[in-house]
Design a protein that fits this description.
Layout lengths: L1 H14 L2 H20 L1 H12 L13 H51 L2 H6 L2 H43 L1 H8 L2 H38 L1 H6 L3 H27 L1 H25 L5 H13 L1 H28 L21 E8 L8 E8 L4 E5 L6 H8 L7 E6 L2 E2 L5 H6 L1 E4 L10 H6 L7 H10 L3 H4 L19 H13 L5 E5 L7 H15 L3 E5 L3 H4 L4 E8 L2 E9 L14 H6 L6
Parallel strand pairs: 3-8, 3-9, 6-7, 7-8
Antiparallel strand pairs: 1-2, 1-4, 4-5, 9-10
Bound molecules: adenosine-5'-triphosphate.
The site of adenosine-5'-triphosphate has 13 residues, from helix 14.
Subcellular location: Cell membrane
Membrane topology: Multi-pass membrane protein
Organism: Friedmanniella luteola
Length: 595
């Protein structure tokens, strides 16, 4: 899974940056080439300017002092150009990696937004945040390290080997006896680093989840004075991460002295064997110095490759976590041949529906419900019986386990998901508000809503009663989750959102909860207005709201999940909607569910 998930995750976004990444690689190879030339000025100076050996044919006759100056200048020039190449290649790779990171975050985020609520309830939100931010960050570190390190370091190692074997084959071979041992040990090291990183990443994700949860519930922590519990929860995760981090660092750094000692053994062997050869007149001092310099020159790329291997091991642990999100197909499936939804108010039906969030824990069993076009139905029942669940099945936030939910007489699984959602305005029990302005939150209810429509919806849902007192009025920022508003104000914003939606099916979950009697009456009036041309299902415990409905349907708990039991026609407050089919009221009186 390791390298394959790295490839799986990075291949597509990195392809767009392949030119920039290749350019960085080429600049790095040039830098390595220059660095390979670094020992030569030293050899020239020692052998020809100091030891008086004859210069190579092309340089014959150059005075020794000039050779010394030229060697000094060449040393500076090589370092300056190598430094510039280093900067240019690293900058190019890091910029490209930032763009790859932005694209990858975009992909993971977009994919996760389409995954089913079952998936989201399993993977905690902090975990997802940690994968989109810090795991992607680690992948970018690996991308930069590979672009500027992998090829150049390999080129450097091969280059040093070739030069060594050409300059002094016997002496070079002595210095290289340690290389196979290094290779075997570094493969083992990579495995150790990877497994310690897999654990550290999992523990880090768990800490992020706990912190996200505690911060979101800071009001509860303070209200109950349970800082002790919050600190203990945090501390358990924090200590686990500390331990995992320390272990990962130990595993990673433990390698350095071993590789350094092995390389030093190579240098030591060359010094002893080469020194004996110089004493015997079989080798020049300059050549010995060059061979020693090249063996030492191996340190850097070998260390670089080891570090790269650790970075790749870390990144592959992160790539597994990112790939797990991208590879998840747990989304609401689209039909092969979608059926179009009509533009007029539609019907809603549940036919023998059974459903449970978790296997073996049914919530609804054999539920039947018919809502005619333009009708308003109130869904009543004890807490936890499954009323909100019915609304979520109509929205297709979840798919039924058995039976079918139909809109306009067509199974919701045969509608395009987006068409279905566009056809429904939903006010959930806990209004989902975003950290934007009041107007932005209301406009969320419609793709094409104008400012005038937003203001009208705010008037209809009595948002204006408090909007004018907010700093900035309709453009006031509501805070995370709308936390600068009261519960009742949040609910009115959610209602305004539904009021401005052009959808022809309206699903309201406890729309008057946390409103005082006066505000509830106002909202009820607004709902009557918006519900006139829509098919509406209202979940409520509020008798005033129940009076709005054409019918009330009771959901009662049974031994194997809830089922609809009785249905009542409203005679007092209910209206006869024009959209009701002829004879519908008689149908409304009959029991909908057959036990
Ligand atoms: N996301 C979920 N995962 C697992 N179980 C859930 C989930 N949401 C709801 N449930 C369970 O499903 C059952 C029905 O919940 P639902 O919210 O539909 O009830 P309700 O009738 O709307 O209750 P209330 O009147 O209190 O809002 C409950 O037992 C609840 O514990």
């Amino acid at each position: 899974m390791s390298t394959s998930s790295l490839r799986r995750v990075l291949a597509a976004p990195a392809r767009a940056e392949s030119a920039a990444l290749t350019a960085s690689g080429v600049l790095s190879v040039l830098r390595v080439g220059l660095e390979l030339a670094r020992p030569w000025p030293l050899a020239l100076a020692v052998d020809h300017a100091l030891d008086g050996r004859p210069l190579p044919a092309g340089l014959a006759g150059v005075p020794p002092v000039d050779v010394l100056f030229a060697a000094g200048l060449a040393t500076v020039a090589v370092s300056a150009v190598a430094g510039w190449l280093d900067m240019a290649s690293t900058r190019g790779a890091e910029r490209a990696a930032e763009r790859v990171g932005a694209q990858l975050r975009r992909e993971v985020f977009a994919h996760s937004m389409g995954l089913s609520l079952r998936w989201h309830s399993r993977v905690r939100s902090g975990e997802l945040v940690s994968r989109i931010t810090s795991d992607v960050g680690r992948l970018l570190d690996a991308l930069v390290a590979a672009a500027v390190g992998l090829v150049p370091d390999l080129v450097a190692v091969v280059g040093v080997l070739v030069v060594l074997l050409q300059v002094a084959p016997g002496l070079g071979a002595v210095g290289l006896v340690v290389v196979p041992v290094l290779a075997v040990l570094s493969v083992r090291q990579r495995r150790l680093v990877r497994s310690s990183q897999v654990h550290a990443r999992a523990v880090s994700g768990a800490l992020t989840s706990t912190v996200t949860d505690l911060v979101r519930n800071v009001a509860a922590v303070q209200a109950f004075g349970r800082h002790d519990l919050a600190r203990a929860d945090f501390e358990t995760r924090n200590r686990a991460l500390e331990a995992a981090g320390v272990r990962a660092v130990d595993v990673e750094t433990g390698w350095t002295p071993r590789s350094d000692v092995l390389l030093a053994v190579g240098s030591g062997l060359v010094l002893v064997v080469g020194g004996l050869q110089v004493r015997a007149g079989l080798q020049s001092t300059g050549t010995l110095l060059v061979v020693l310099a090249y063996v030492r020159e191996l340190y850097r790329p070998v260390r670089g490759l080891t570090r790269l291997s650790a970075v790749l091991a870390k990144a592959s642990a992160s790539a597994d976590r990112v790939a797990e999100v991208l590879d998840s197909e747990e989304r609401v499936p689209e039909p092969a041949v979608p059926t179009s939804l009509r533009a007029a108010p539609g019907t809603i039906s549940l036919r023998d529906v059974s459903f449970g969030y978790d296997p073996g824990r049914p919530v609804l069993a054999h539920v039947d419900l018919e809502v005619a076009a333009g009708e308003t139905v109130c869904l009543l029942g004890p807490s936890g019986v499954g009323k909100s669940t019915v609304l979520q099945l109509v929205l297709r936030l979840y798919d039924v386990d058995a039976g079918a939910v139909l809109v306009d007489g067509v199974d919701v699984r045969d509608h395009r998901v987006q068409d279905l959602r566009d056809a429904i305005a939903y006010v959930p029990q806990d209004p989902w508000l975003l950290d934007g302005t009041l107007a932005q939150n209301v406009a969320f209810g419609s793709r094409r809503g104008t400012r005038a429509e937003v203001l009208q919806a705010c008037r209809d849902a009595l948002v204006d009663e408090f909007a004018h007192q907010l700093p900035g009025g309709h453009d006031a920022v509501l805070g995370e989750g709308g936390n600068r508003l009261s519960g009742g104000q949040r609910r009115r914003v959610a209602l305004a959102r539904a009021a401005m939606s052009p959808a022809r099916l309206l699903l309201l979950d406890e729309p008057t909860a946390s409103l005082d009697a006066r505000a509830a009456a106002g909202v009820v009036a607004a709902i009557r207005a918006t519900a006139r041309h829509r098919t509406t299902v209202i979940v409520t415990h509020d008798p005033v709201l129940a009076d709005l409905a054409d019918r009330t349907v009771h959901l009662v708990a049974g031994p194997h999940g809830a089922r609809t039991a009785t249905t009542h026609l409203r005679t007092g407050g209910g209206e006869h909607h024009e959209g009701l089919p002829p004879g519908h009221q008689g149908a409304a009186e009959q029991a909908l569910a057959q036990p």
